[in-house]
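Think of the structure tokens as a kind of shorthand, similar to the way a musician reads notation: each symbol stands for something richer, in this case the local conformation of the backbone. In the example below we present two proteins back to back. Begin with the first one, reading the sequence and then the tokens, and try to describe in your own words what changes along the chain.
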Amino acid sequence: MKGKLSILRFLALILFLLKFNEIYARGKERSLDNQGDDDENEDSLNIADVPEPEANVTGCTRKKAILMHEIRTATQNQFPFMASIMSSKNEYVCAGTVIANGLILTTAQCTDSISYVLVNGTSDKKDDTTFSLHVIKSENFPSYTGPNTGKDVAVIYTEKHNNTLASKITLSNYTSAQLLNDVEVLGFGLNAEVGQPKKLQFVGLEAREKNEDVIRAYIDCIETKVSTCFRDKGGPVLFNNELVGIVTKGQPECTAEILSTYALNKHMVDALPTYSFKAWIDEKIAKAAEPGVEALEAYPKKPSYREAVIHIMTSSAYLKSNNVVFITIAYTLVLYF
């Protein structure tokens, strides 16, 4: 009898262990399933936390332009062909470019109510470093009758001057804008706010959209926190130190920061290519070349430098040698002290 009870107890224990093992296995399986669901939920949360890229922003995968750079402030005599066109109220109107002695190139939009120009300066204000030239007249391109009509280009005639005041820019002989890539564009107060002084500035851009009548230049893929816009017109577009266009329209909306990791594709200026009006302007330059009028140095050469000559007025035709020595010593002492 005792033997049978022992066998029954043993069988009951076996059944209990089997049942317990089954229950444990099911519990473990449910635990793994729950853990998988949690991982999926966590992954979903992580994915949701990742910000979506902006719709109009792409990475900078293209070759970065060599000349493209942020807006920079020019130094004195860095661009001796630059001119600021002023009104009779001493207000800044537009930028211009010296192309010959007495000739300033700009846009036709900039020729109303102008009075004088300041050449080879770095701001829109008269100071000891600038030279003022009176405006005689202006002449628009024949097809221009107003904004968005004809070629927006004009020449301003000023009084003649000696070649120590400014240099001239050379017009490029290129015949297709497709040859252009990176350009430098100049103007006054490119990112200046209303009421601020307009300093001479320049910026490196990519000539991206080009056709017979317009060059559209952009900036992107650089690292800068300089406020970026172009609040001027009439200024030159340069390539290889030659004039390839003039700015007819600038970008007034400023961007506070540009990153080198994203292509902003910021449109900065529209420019009129010089080859579209070169024959007309060459004729004006040829007619302005009068006998006895000093020719200007071509940029990148600086204006001609002349040493000061001391003239000693006397009543006789000559000076005695001891007087010459005395004057020379006296002048040397003045310079030295």
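Once you have a description of the first chain, move to the second and do the same.
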Amino acid sequence: MGYNVLMATMGGTKSHTIPFVALGSSLKARGHNVTLLSAFSGPAANNGLQEFVPSMFEAYVGNYTSEWDLIGARFRDEMPISPWDAMRYAWEACEALLRDEISVSWLRRSEGDPRARWDVAVLDGAYPECLLGILYGEDVPTIMLNTVALYSGSISRQGNPSPWSVTPYFGKSLTQDMNFFQRILNAAYLTTLRIMHWIMISGYLQPVLRKYLGDQLPDIRDLTTEIPLTLQNSHYSVADSVPYLANVVNVACLHCKPATQLSLDLETFLQRGESRSSKVA
């Protein structure tokens, strides 16, 4: 008999669902019952997984991201969103989910059945605090899938070393080969990021969670610390080499599929020319 597996992401873009769908499909093929909660209809259902899309959460994310231009911002070397927008998303998205009592009940217990329970939960490492707060007290073993491996805050709270001298700030084009002045600038960026996270959690998200779930809820940063296993969507062969502890497992290219044969037209195009070399973008 398979396990009941809950997968959930509070991520504001559909790309957050891709590693979850890949992992969920593999678990389903092994006989487990997999449900994916997200703000996006389609990715789970189209791959044979149970899909749970809370309507209020979906509406909030749709309105919040309607004018985003993430790729264009990268080309222009600009911040994709303002620091304030990145912070407020955490508690506003969480409150949109918490206001839906049926969805919260369903999230805690499979299909809201008080006699049912999740055997394991796999939560996104991006904005995990809201989901951890909702699942608190349900005694569900929890794994974190860090879909955006550049976010090192959660795994550093779990004891993994993240020295700022070799941990580049993901919002700028810095690498581990920073010079002295770049390392000083990098430390300033990361210090600011840590202060922003503290304000976001202590000043806004924690009060929102206790408003809906009760004052017995502990500091949600402590709940992040207690997660025993993190699947990191990265690998030292394609990203920075970092000395993770045994509780972090690199799973880069989790969603990759075996190469398929090209169509005849494409194969002919690539073989054309004396040099037999082509560049495809």
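Compare your description with these statements about the second chain. The CA atoms of residues 22 and 257 lie 10 Å apart.
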